[in-house]
Amino acid sequence: MKFASMREHLRDQMYDTSPELFEILCKMVLARRLNTESLRVTAFRQDEGIDIEGAIDEDVFVASFGAQVKRYNEGTTVGNRHIQRFSGALDQAKYQTGTYITSSSFTEPASAAAEELQIHLVDGERLAVTMVQHQIGVTKNLGSYETDDEFWEAIEEPEQQGIVPSNEVPLANSFQTLRLFLKAIEDTDGSTQAIHSEVASFDSRHANLYGTAGWILGFVHKDTPKRVNGREVRRWGLTNTGTKYLRLHERGDEEAAERLLIDAIRNVEIIQRVFETIERDGELSYQELKDRVSAETNLSQSSVSRRSSTVAQWLTTLPEVEEISDGQSKKFVHG
């Protein structure tokens, strides 16, 4: 399609996505427009109106910045009061520069306030133009533009219908290890190679295994691969929920972190389906759990055995489910 058609297509994509995924989109655009070698973009650390933060280091210029991201419907504008609040958040957190990004547009008073406060504004039109011009989420061939499927697949969420895909059935069985993985993402560019360097016990298999678990829980998002020594290396990025989970643990608020984890587990499709059976029948044997996982997926029998163990562990994290001995096996009862 032509430049203008692709620009409008991207605008429609922005309006159709969720606020959380729009933030991830903006994070990925920022990472590509500002050299990722000198930029560290993460989800917010405090609830101060800052959604994305980064550090720009260009040898002769060093600055910390914060970005506010708002996915609004078409026709809903960002007003002056939003800019004033954002300016206060930047000052409070001591960011040196700031950018406000929205899928919609800004009012004239908002634009005037931003100019006075030296805040950079990016509306939906400008964001779409930037993406087309720099081929972010877009490919160009012989003057025609098409969407980059790999880019958009990287920010998709797990589906909840029909057969549960194999990559939505967890295999990671340690939440402590998951936290190490999340922290490694935050401290690196999120590539499997960098994560392995950060946490020596993580090889690429472990990184992908825990990355997939984090994605299923909504704690991480996929990012497009980077090339290292001529080959593609998978990358992961934190979502707001993943960052909040880390911060709660760092603050010692274990109860709140546990509640957040439980809420995330409740939203995992395979957990929902198995839990429905326990809730209906009152109990479920371990063999019946494996049978249910097999029926709801296209996994091989060997994979069903391995992943059912993790499903059972995630399931018993829910306060309503108790694991009890059942002869030489175990069963799960609804409390």
How does this structure look, described?
It is a single chain. The chain is globular and about 75 Å long. β10 (220-228) and β11 form a beta hairpin. The protein folds into 2 domains: 3-153, Trna Endonuclease, Chain: A, domain 1; 166-334, Winged helix-like DNA-binding domain superfamily/Winged helix DNA-binding domain (Arc Repressor Mutant, subunit A, Orthogonal Bundle), CATH 1.10.10.10. With 335 residues, it is an alpha/beta fold. The chain is built from 14 helices and 14 strands. The mean pLDDT is 88. α7 (175-187) crosses α10 (240-250) and α10 (240-250) runs antiparallel to α11 (254-266). It has a 5-stranded mixed beta sheet with strand order 1-2-3-5-7. Strands 12-14-13 form a 3-stranded antiparallel beta sheet. The protein has helices at residues 3-16, 19-33, 80-92, 108-117, 124-133, 149-153, 175-187, 192-198, 204-217, 240-250, 254-266, 269-281, 286-296, 301-315, and strands at residues 42-43, 52-57, 62-70, 77-78, 97-102, 105-106, 119-122, 138-141, 144-147, 220-228, 231-238, 283-285, 321-326, 329-334. The relative contact order is 0.09. Helices cover 49% and strands 21% of the residues.
Compact summary:
The protein is of the alpha/beta class and 335 residues long. It has 14 helices and 14 strands. The protein has 2 domains: 3-153, Trna Endonuclease, Chain: A, domain 1 (3-Layer(aba) Sandwich), CATH 3.40.1350.10; 166-334, Winged helix-like DNA-binding domain superfamily/Winged helix DNA-binding domain (Arc Repressor Mutant, subunit A, Orthogonal Bundle), CATH 1.10.10.
